[in-house]
Amino acid sequence: MASFVLRLATLIVALTWPLYSQTAPAPTLFPAQEGELFGYINARGVFVIQPRYELAGDFSEGLASVWTGAAYGYIDAGNRLAIPARFTAAGEFREGLAPAAERSRWGFIDRSGAWKIPPRFVFAEEFSEGLAVVESGGRFGYIDASGALKLPAVYEKAGRFSNGVAPVRRAGRLSMINPQGESIKELPFESVGSFHDGFAPVKISARMLGALQEKPGRLPGERLSDWFLENPGWAHAVRIGGYMAACLNGGGGCERLPTDSFIVPPRADAYENPQPLQRPMNRNWGYINDAYALAIAPAFDEAGAFSEGLAAVRTGAAWGYINRAGQLVIAPAYDYAGPFRGGLAPVEKNGRRSYISPAGVLIWSAAPPPAP
User: Which DSSP symbol is given to 131?
Assistant: First the structure.
């Protein structure tokens, strides 16, 4: 049986950036699987397109991609085949275009199914703010709606533009760039998603979360109990008698800094009570705000993008949802949890596929999977 998690909306593997960075317009119909086949339910959990497709993607701009047995095509909300099935892979429509593949090469089609940008890329993502990520020659760049390469394929990773910026990794360095390709902010994280609802998920390096215990000193020029922030441009961070300070590596002195200068602030007074961070080292996902400050402290094993005010997060083996204050509002209970779109979110537990409301209320659930 095809997994609900692997429905078409997630079949396009995010080679560029984690899938949780993706956002899309809110749909009114939602793919749902019964037995071996997919159909579509409405927001009340009622089938309005009966299950008949082997795979089915999310509706976007009035169309959804479906697998008809030999290829992907697109249907409209009335279950009419709007674009004949002839693609080996198919994405969602954004800004009037959809990425699609033919003979392992990706291009972009318009709503008639005609090639607007002929297939010539190794991979392509949906458009966002006038630009789309494409892969060429083992690197990623950005094209505009005419197919012109606006930013050359020089990035090891590249995310979608949101709020005028996009996350990229080049030569091992992670940063946010503007549509002109200029670096706006270099980021000391392992990974970062695109902004949505004012937040972007980030993965903090395990080294940043640790603490190095040393003999406490009594003068700013001496190294106190240093807090590890081992990233380019950052020194050891300490708290001295009520204020924050950054100390030069090697003990060359300390300088007082405002609290918001720290990506991961010290959690104890190093002068009076030196101690390591008391937190699981593997829970290193949190969120930054659009000022690039850590807004929700790292406390999760995985973190998805915010959508409709909530974000899916994983702690241990289970997924739940937090609000913009970082509070758990739907307890971790699922093997998979997707983003909210149109007031519903897809979840899965013990192989059973469902949709829930923002209050955690079950709206629709598939029949239990057959016993092994």
Answer: B
Check pLDDT > 50 for residue 247.
Answer: no
Per the CB < 8 A criterion, the answer to whether 332 and 324 are in contact is no
Residues contacting residue 97 through CB under 8 Å, at least 6 positions apart: 108, 109, 110, 116, 117, 127, 132, 145
Cα→Cα distances 221→211, 233, 245, 261, Å: 19, 19, 11, 20
Q: Are 177 and 168 in contact (CB under 8 A)?
A: yes
CA separation for the pair 86, 340 (Å, rounded): 30
Q: If we measure between CA atoms, which residue out of 311, 338, 218 comes closest to residue 270?
A: 218
Measured CA to CA, the distance from residue 89 to residue 55 in angstroms comes to 11
DSSP state of 64: E
CA distance linking residue 341 with residue 276, whole number of Å: 40
* 178-221 pLDDT tens trace: 999 999 998 878 889 999 999 999 987 654 443 222 223 322 32
- Residue bearing tokens 């003979």: 103
Find all residues with CB under 8 Å of 14, minimum gap 6, and list them.
21, 22, 125
Query: For residues 265 and 243, what is the distance between their CA atoms, to the nearest angstrom?
Result: 11
Distance of CA 12 to the CA centre of its chain: 14
CA-based nearest residue to 134, from 105, 176, 177: 105
Nearest to residue 196, comparing CAs of 151, 157, 155, 165?
A: 165
Contacting residues for 208 by C-beta, under 8 A, at least 6 apart: 188, 228, 229, 230, 231, 263, 264
pLDDT tens, residue by residue, 228-238 = 333 333 344 44
Q: Return the SS3 of 101.
A: strand
Cα angle 165, 168, 173 (rounded to 5 degrees) comes to 125
pTM of the model: 0.76
Split at pLDDT 50, 70, 90, the class of 293 is confident
Burial 174-184 (b: 16+ CB within 10 A, else e): bbbbebebeee
pLDDT band at 24 (very low <50, low <70, confident <90, very high): low
The residue among 127 and 368 whose pLDDT is bigger is 127
d(CA 140, CA 315): 31
For residue 372, the model assigns a pLDDT of: 65
